[in-house]
Amino acid sequence: MSSLSVWAVAALGLYLLVTVAAPRFMVRPEQLLRHPTLALITWTTALAVAAMSLVVGLSLLVVTAVSHVVSPPVPEEWFMAIVDSVAGWLALAVLGLIGLRAVVAAQELKQDEVKIALLLATYPITERVTTVAGPAGVVDAEDLFALADASNRQVVVSRAVKTRLSPDELSAVVAHEFAHLRLHHRAVLRISRLAASVVPVFRAAGTYSQVVRIATELAADDYAAKRCNPRVLARALVIAYPTTSGITERGLRLLTRSADRD
Q1: CA-wise closest residue to 183 among 207, 210, 153
Q2: Full-model pTM
Q3: 158-190 pLDDT, tens per residue?
Q4: Collapsing DSSP states into helix, strand and coil, what is residue 44?
Q5: Which DSSP category does 242 fall into?
Q6: Is 156 helix (H, G, I), strand (E, B) or coil?
Q7: Percent of the chain beyond pLDDT 70?
Q8: Phi, psi of 26 (to 5 degrees)
Q9: What is the pLDDT of residues 202-256, one digit of tens each?
Q10: How far is CA 129 from CA 35, 75, 147, 242, 245, in A?
Q11: What percent helix, strand, coil does the chain show, rounded to 5?
Q12: Which distant-in-sequence residues (6+ apart) come within 8 Å of 197 by Cβ?
């Protein structure tokens, strides 16, 4: 086995280690609830290590196969050369499949931006309000929603949300949405969904996507809770996002953390 093959096996071994170990040792609900930002950093680092080791390992297998074509091995090494060549062409096929899935997934992710653009086209901003947390655009919609428009770096709320919330509650919701913008949560969410789409057979990718969805909301809650009353934020979240999964539990978490501070 050539030195390149050894490095390729080592890189792929690291990839398998991370994808197997991450869901087993890094999924701790208590840590996610207490330190969502740390959970995001840890999981994203693990994903980066796994992705890099996978690409490097497969690429080295391809390079090894090509090297045997450029420089034919001596007769004593023909068997390993055949093994390296088969592994290399399989690796090339896997890289091609990953690339294809990545392109398809990237196109699907663009649909999120299209949906927001269509929403704002249907309900254009008719009013600007200034809150303690920052400015927000108001659209004439009767549905309850508030969102962070990453493309235009702005927060948008529906008329229904503005009407139902007090000024302090509206400021809390705006602070939560601004947190998504300032902490670049949209990019993190896109990366997690891309990972889950490209390598869906590995549990780590799916778990990472789930952790990111939860952690980004908890991190935004914590960011907003530092800038407004956590009790007001908890109440505002339940009113503004009544159908969001886990919203009641997030409100209780904020109330518990507020009680701990007191």
Answers
A1: 153
A2: 0.82
A3: 999 999 999 999 999 999 999 999 999 998 888
A4: helix
A5: T
A6: strand
A7: 93
A8: -105, -5
A9: 667 777 888 888 999 999 999 999 989 999 999 999 999 988 888 999 999 998 8
A10: 32, 78, 15, 22, 28
A11: 75, 10, 15
A12: 101, 102, 104, 105, 108
> What is the structure's pLDDT at 70?
76
Position 197, amino acid: S
C-alpha distances in angstroms, 117 versus 107, 123, 150, 194?
16, 10, 11, 21
Q: Does residue 14 sit in helix, strand or coil?
A: helix
CA distances from 235 to 172, 249, 252 (A): 9, 12, 10
Reading the block at residue 130, the tokens are 């200034």
Question: Among residues 155, 165, 164, 207, which one has the least CA distance to residue 185?
Answer: 155
Write b or e for each residue in 69-89: b if 16 or more Cβ atoms lie within 10 A of its Cβ, otherwise e: eeeebeeeeeeebeebbebbe
Question: E strands, the chain, where?
Answer: 125-131, 134-139, 146-149, 154-158
**Contact at 8 Å (CB) between 61 and 94?**
no
